[in-house]
Amino acid sequence: MVFRHLPVMPEEVVKFLACKHGRIYVDGTVGGGGHTNSILNASMPAGKVIGMDWDEDAIQAAMERFKDYSERLTLVRENFADIKKVMGDLNIKEVDGILLDLGVSSYHIERPDRGFSFRFDAPLDMRMDKRQKTTAYNIVNELSMKELEKIIREYGEERWAKRIAVAIIEKRRHGPISSTKEFSNLVSFAIPKKFHPKDIHPATRTFQAIRIAVNDELNNLKKAVDDGVGLLGLGGRMVVISFHSLEDRIVKESFRKLAKGCVCPNDFPKCVCGQRPKLHIITKRPIAPSLEEISRNPRARSAKLRAAERI
Known about the structure:
By secondary structure, the chain is of the alpha/beta class. It folds into two domains: 10-107 and 217-310, Vaccinia Virus protein VP39 (Rossmann fold, 3-Layer(aba) Sandwich), CATH 3.40.50.150; 116-215, Putative methyltransferase TM0872, insert domain (DNA polymerase, domain 1). It has helices at residues 10-17, 34-42, 56-65, 83-89, 106-110, 136-142, 145-156, 161-172, 180-190, 204-215, 217-231, 245-260, 291-296, and strands at 24-27, 48-52, 73-76, 95-101, 232-242, 279-281, 304-310. A seven-stranded mixed beta sheet has the order 3-2-1-4-5-7-6, sandwiched between helices. It is globular and about 60 Å long.
């Protein structure tokens, strides 16, 4: 299967990264290569891109797609949370721009064997990186009821988290929950029918929660933002595209913290912590896709773009 994923807000990404000839950019989530392609074109003729992705299929597809760009593109199979280590290994001390596109690709959703979607009957997996040991099967079948409830409530923002966790534990008494269909049916039955959402499948939030837990997505994001900002040269920019409120909240709060600098209590007569602002926030409010883009790519509808500049 071809690794396809329509890039979200590619023109806005290039604009807010302020791509220029001869600069170095990091695409922390290569995916289908759409944003990588835009950055390469916008930084012609000598801009360089470090493309990262922890999915082997994405890296292999990018190698094939960009085989003629070997002098300008370096591809690395690593999690963007390890951006500091990757740049160190490449002997790159600072970069001019970093993009993090947090969306799950169409490729992952449409590959039954990856176990991300309830549309197919497949093994519970959900790993972005198949080198990981922990799968959705492990999370669903091995965690306690309290742990499951916490994950589903916090990561899925699901009001019926307790009922779903109870249903999981009860089902496990008769054997493991092993497939996406089995799990989605269980979640649907656990939520009272009159409270089923009209616009999404009733298991959507729970699947999101389990996926986030499997891949430790929120902690990885926090680390990537903090370490990534430390790699930006003066005037370098970070652009992050998020797709749900938990991600967007982390980006917003991380940017605000790094833009504030001083962490001393408000009643202190002067700063004693010595911390100085590292960022200037460019997007006071998140940028959303145009209606035209959403009509072409409905999966873009929930995207929010935030950008900040190193000072």
